[in-house]
Amino acid sequence: MSLEPRSTAPARHAPCAVPPNVLERIIRNGTTEQRDWALSTLSLDATARLTRTHNAAVALARPRRRPAPAPAAIGPRRTIADAEGREILPGVTVRTEGAAAVEDVAVNEAYDGLGATFDFFWSTYARNSIDDEGLPLLATVHYGDHYDNAFWDGQQMVFGDGDGELFNRFTVSLDIIGHELAHGVTEDEAGLAYLNQPGALNESVSDVFGSLVKQHKLDQKAEDADWLIGGGLLAPGVQGVALRSMKAPGTAFDDPVLGKDDQPDHMSRYVYTSADNGGVHINSGIPNKAFYNVATAFGGHAWEKAGKIWYETLRSPVLRTNASFRSFASITVTQARTLFGSDGAKTVQEGWRAVGVRV
Amino acid sequence: MSDRERVRVVLERSGGFAGRTIRRGLDTDDLPDAEAEALRALVGALPAAPAHAAGPAKAAGPDRFTYAVAVDAAGHQGVHHFADPLPEAAKSLIQLLSKAPLLPAHG
Ligand SMILES: [Zn+2]
Fold first, then answer.
1. Which of B17, B66, B99, B102 to mutate: most A Cβ within 10 Å?
2. Whether residue A205 is found in the same domain as residue A175
3. Of A64, A141, A232, A257, which one has the greatest count of Cβ atoms within 10 A?
4. What is the complex's ipTM, to 2 decimals?
5. Helix residue ranges per DSSP H, B29-98
6. Ligand 1 centroid from CA A209, angstroms
7. Do B22 and A179 touch (CB under 8 A)?
């Protein structure tokens, strides 16, 4: 079996080089024949973003017969459910949007974390939820028995209570909640394959936005943030401060059971392994450190420049599902130039070069 | 599998949000009779071990777990690879091993 992402990830782009915005223009202004061609070309691309572009273009091309429904108020539309220790989703609803806090701390942490993450994406990048179409946010807490994980299953968030020996409850840290919801955003926008370099980029993008959600909530500047992922998650007695450090990859923990944090901070120490889908949680240290370099070089609120550049990179139609560190990095440089001029591009270039990614 | 036969099982769980490989294990020699018997039954219910060594399973999605269950018993030796969602035949054994004593990390 080949593990090359090229063979597992479907091609993301229509087999023609016409950018979607040009196709859109053809749909609006072209002849019937041109319009049909452009619509079918757009529909070959399976990503959700281009599907939306396609649908919007179809709506423009064919006038509505019915008036559009009134847009719902923008907001996270949260539902928190309780799996009561079983591995069944979604479980019993325990708190809905606007309802008062309950006694259960995991329920409130999930509710607040989903709210902070929604607020981050909406107020900084005008993104309306995971899918940018106002997807209501559903989270299940108390999933499984001593369950050591949190994940986005493609439709909802799932949080375990942790085993208490190694890990505490997974709602404990806001960057974990932001990390998991960011997996939903990445899946929607870029579909980065979860293997080797694109997988490590997928992980890194989640750490980046997870950390930014926390920094935004705390109103921290890049130079004041701790850049830790999963602070508070390690159970008492485990030797470490968090699961990952974006500022200093490889230094978050050193424990007899957990092992030593082995995240590299430079391409020369890239880890080749068949475990963890090619070490996606290990090699993410390299792009994590690059982001930290860029964010601190710009200074100020990291979401304003570095975060904006990474967000637009994720949305870029030229980002492929099997992107390498280098191809991702080169798109960040292009986005930086567009958004912040040649000085911005230089800052981003230097951030990547410091971790051994040549751009 | 006979009543008194020694069975040792080590679970290596990889991936997850933490992305760490966590090892836990059980040994019938260390268990009360009833629990030892339950462990033998769960190991006996596993699907046949692959004829040749297979690589790790691929995670079903971001931050999902993969599992390697190493069995050491007279009539049954080998490593079984699984990913979430688990097959029924492996679910109870992995749930049991997920609460077993921790073993030191490799390396
Ligand atoms: Zn992740």
1. B17
2. no
3. A141
4. 0.90
5. 33-44, 88-97
6. 11
7. no
